[in-house]
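Minutes, project check-in
Item: structure for the 380-residue chain
Input as provided by the requester:
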Amino acid sequence: MLRRCCPFLLLLASASCNESTKSNSSNEAGPATIGATQATFRSFKSDSVFHTNKPVHCIFQDKAGSFWFGTEGDGLCRYDGTRFTWFTVNEGLCSDFVWTIDEDKNGKLWLSTRDGICRYDDTAFTWFADDGILRNRGYALSPKIDTGKVWQRTPGDLWFSANSGVYRYDGNAFTFLPLPRRESDNSPRSADRLNPYTVYCTYTDKAGNVWCGTQSIGVCRYDGKSFAWFDEEGLSGPAVRAVFQDSKGNMWFGNNGAGVFRYDGKALTNFTAAHNVSNERFLRTHFVMDTPGTLARIWSIAEDDAGSIWFATIDAGAWRYDPSSQVLTNFTTKDGLASNVVNSIYKDKSGGLWFGTNSGACRFDGTRFTTFTGTDSIRL
């Protein structure tokens, strides 16, 4: 099962979900004692129009065909083809800041939020929280954990980003898995600085390999037996926010500053540099501004039915790459995007591409972008 990438979260280190039982703060990896708190529904907000002035961070279509939108501040919205139903903390959601949405084999929805993980099963939300900050900071100061004894994978696993590794959910329990130290890295880490081993996104490819994009040391791949690091050509340094595998088997990495990288199974190349669309100013100064024409700050990657690869940037709109013609095209608000800040790209079951932006959600039908309101021609 493929897993979408998710942005960095201090997951399972919850403040608002602290009714759960906390784990101990030892440095040992293993099954996390994560308490589950079930929230009772109170009321629901329902509307015939989709409206939010908050950023849309993720879009997902479930097995039943309904669309879900995760926002930054307005909670979660479900569209069943007729009505929009909103879920916030008042309706039992763990947090109104929803970063990613996924679905398990049983049809239960999993949400990573600012304040932990929520599971939704059509009857109630269940909160999962753990004292992740102590666990993860402990690892930052203790590099001698034998990761080979605790890492494993099975089909259908759910993976969640954490401060110095990942949480794996196998359908029964969570396990915290710290990333292994690279052989070249022998320096001690301080608890008051950003941990380079922090994971910003996870992805499971067609072969079952698990890929982790990190804070500043590139990408780590776990194949079930061993680990491999990818940090050449400028991939390390800025955080890796996106990992994606296309239909031809190529791996794509989205870096927040150095741009897009492609790994064909043999060599890693800096795709952005090769196409002369870098943002050297941001790399030097970290000065944030709208910079159309650059492909440097990538937060999401997807592929359309025609085989073109799409990239979401948070300062220059969206880009499309046609491998056949090798043409790169930049789309911005001038082309109908709701915002040049694009947080995510999602392909639905009909092949339509959705874009979560800082000004709502857009859909691309192959010709034009349409801002989604629920009153237009987009129907399930």
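Outcome recorded: Residues 30-371 form a domain with the Methylamine Dehydrogenase; Chain H fold (CATH 2.130.10.10).
No further action items on this chain.
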